[in-house]
Design brief:
By secondary structure, the chain is of the alpha/beta class. About 20% of the residues lie in helices and about 35% in strands. The strands form two sheets. A six-stranded mixed β-sheet has the order 5-4-3-6-7-8, with helices on both faces. A four-stranded antiparallel β-sheet has the order 1-2-10-9. Magnesium ion binds next to loops.
Amino acid sequence: MGYIRVHDKLFDPYLSQEEIQTRVGFLAEQLNTEYAGKKPLFIAILNGSFIFASDLFKKLHIEAEICFIKLASYKGSRSTGHVVTAIGLDADIIGRDIVIIEDIVDTGKTLTEFLPQLRNQQPASLRIVALLHKAEVTKYPVVIDYLGFTIPDKFVVGYGLDYDGLGRNIPEIYKLVE
Ligand code: IMP
Ligand code: MG
């Protein structure tokens, strides 16, 4: 695999399809074991996690549900600051075993703001599965219960992740050439 161009930038190969699938299989095995007999509800966060969520979900052999939400952030009043709201979360959370599916945790801000809102709805349990974690730059600590890969602070595209709207359909993960 060589360089690719997305918009004005060059990216080079970082994680192959095989590396990704092997790791997704490993995460699914962990979930199959931990959630056997529990009927968890997976909540995938759009847009970035749609391919990861699809591959992961296909590898689950347990009874499980999935729904997809979008997180919209906007500037609230001075007292509330930055606010994140979930669009499309119509499922009943109360008493359920919830697993959030996220593509990448970068600063951790998005999940740090969203998780308390879910906890307020009193799930039986709440865990996170994330494909990628830029651990060096996570300023808002998020406990990722099931993690694909820890990656350096490099911008990545492919496998659902975009650069300004493009690149989501690339089957591998590429990183920005600097
Ligand atoms: P956080 O709130 O900083 O953790 O932001 C996480 C979100 O930013 C992810 O769900 C992605 O949508 C986006 N993001 C962060 N890093 C990257 C990247 O390297 N490539 C593409 N999207 C990214
Ligand atoms: Mg995302």
